[in-house]
Every structure is written in C-alpha cells, then in structure tokens.
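Researcher: I'd like a structural prediction for the single chain below. Treat it as a standalone chain; there are no partners to consider.
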Amino acid sequence: MAKIKTLHGRKKFSANIPKLRLKKDVKLTKHDPFKSLTNEKLIAQAFWECLKDNDPEGAIEILAAHFQALNKRQLAENAEMPRSTLYHSLKCKNPTIKTVAKLIHCCA
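Model: Treating it as a single chain, here is the predicted structure.
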C-alpha cells in the first residue's frame, strides 16, 4: 500500500482575492460592537421588541450577546449566583423569568 502524501504547509487562498478599492470621497468610520453591546438602552429596546414580536429565542440571543460583552465573573458575583448558572441559563436558551430578572438586575 502506497504512503499517502501530506501537505507541509497551508495554502494561502486569500492571495488571489482582489483588493477592495473605494471611491476617493468615501469616508469610513470605525464601528465598535463592544460599545453597542454594552449600551443598556439599546439592549433593552431590542429585548422589548423581540418580546413584542413573540420571538423569545431572539430575546435570549440579545441577552447572551450583551453578557458576552460584559465580564462574566464580576457579573456572577454581583448577581450572587454561580458562574455555572449564568453560563447554563444562556446556553440552554430557556432561562426562567426569575433568572433573567436577576441577571438584568445585576447589570444595572
């Protein structure tokens, strides 16, 4: 049986992609997603819109994204709950109202 040859290095697939060229008068601004994800008013508005639209999965995703941007250890200490409960409540996508209220209260 013949020995299978393996590659010794990775190929660069992005080398053949042409560079993006912008018009001269186009101005770009930097976007900081961390700033948006830690904005409590924006998160509250998005959470409320998901609840109004009967989208509980979307509401939990919004909370999960918000908590990803925050320091989870400090968040769990402020909520006086174990970190495992915090991770599990966002992982299982079905936290109780009591858990959601506790998490929101500790963020404020």
